[in-house]
Amino acid sequence: MLLARRNFLALTVGGLFAAACKPAPNPVPTNSKPKVLATISILADVAERLGAPDLEIVSLIGPDQTAHHRDPTPRELTGFNDISLLLHVGFKLEGWIDRLPESTGYRGPIIQASEGIDPILVEGRIPDPHTWQSFVGLRSYAETIVKVYVKLWPNLATRFKARLVTYLAELEAAEQAAVARLAQVRQGRRLIIVPHNSFRYLGREFGLEFRGISALSTGAQPSAQALAILLDEIKSADAAACFIEAEADKRLMEQIARESGAKLGGKLYTDSLSKPDGPAGTSIKMLAYNLATIAEALAT
């Protein structure tokens, strides 16, 4: 079971750091499972599916917590002597990663899970870090993680590889189900309005166009002119829907839906999983839920 970071203060960000040259895993106490730290709950879920019960997986940022603008607290900068591996998303999501080695004693490996993924560049230069919002992204995470696991713990290689096969099969089944659901949606320009555009990779995979309200203005609310342009775009689309990420988004999205005629489609999960008993309690369930929610809104 994943342990949220706030409930695991002994495993602080000190373990996030690796020496820049020739890193080696930290010693693992005798008779204990190797511990793997993942920076966000989605990545931790993938790591756990592939590593548990042989490895203990902990998450720095737990379910229902944002992954953005989240620097480690001073209290989190101690400990980590028992962390054997750090997994992070990369593409500058965890901007503090490079600063941590000199602040801590961690000398284990730091692995970027998004390594090998073709990044989408925002404004032509900034890699979008939301690679987990795609089947390609989760598949790449899993393959990268297993390669590292096998290298670090070769005696468990058969188990890791078997779990990878199972995970990829489940991912493939979820992807095919999503393809089938979206095939029922009117073709053409399918426009999806969200508070923040965390879904570019999902859009690339499924031919969906996402627009983030936050990109329309530097303030809390878009200007009347920007909103009018957006409303015209929505009206010209073949299918359109608006979604929220948090309760605070609901009022503006209701306004946009009402004035444009778009469907108000409910909540999407962006930077983290839901609680385990929620609709997006695992990495695969998150993608399946988001796509099912999108397909249902666009089809009505």
Q: Could you please describe the fold and organization of this structure?
A:
This protein folds into two domains: 172 residues, Rossmann fold, CATH 3.40.50.1980; 114 residues, 3-Layer(aba) Sandwich (Rossmann fold), CATH 3.40.50. Helix content is 34%, strand content 15%. It contains seven helices and ten strands. The strands form three sheets. A four-stranded parallel sheet has the order 2-1-3-4, covered by helices on one side. Strands 8-7-9-10 form a four-stranded parallel sheet, with helices on both faces. The protein has a two-stranded antiparallel sheet with strand order 5-6. Helix 3 packs parallel to helix 7. The two termini are 38 Å apart.
Give the gist of this structure.
With 300 residues, the chain is an alpha/beta fold. It has seven helices and ten strands.
DSSP, total strands = 10
Give the helix tally.
7
Q: What characterizes the major β-sheet? A: 4 strands, parallel
Number of domains: 2
Largest sheet, spatial ordering of strands: 2-1-3-4
H/E element order: EHEEEEEHHEHEHEHEH
Poorly predicted residue ranges: 3-25
Alpha carbon gyration radius: 20 Å
The CATH topology annotation of the largest domain reads as Rossmann fold
The CATH first-level class of the largest domain comes to Alpha Beta
The span between the termini is 38 Å
Secondary structure elements and their pairing?
Elements: E1 35-40, H1 41-51, E2 56-61, E3 83-88, E4 110-112, E5 121-122, E6 126-127, H2 135-152, H3 157-182, E7 190-194, H4 200-206, E8 209-212, H5 224-236, E9 239-244, H6 250-260, E10 263-267, H7 283-299
Parallel strand pairs: 1-2, 1-3, 3-4, 7-8, 7-9, 9-10
Antiparallel strand pairs: 5-6
Helix pairs in contact: 1-2, 2-3, 3-7
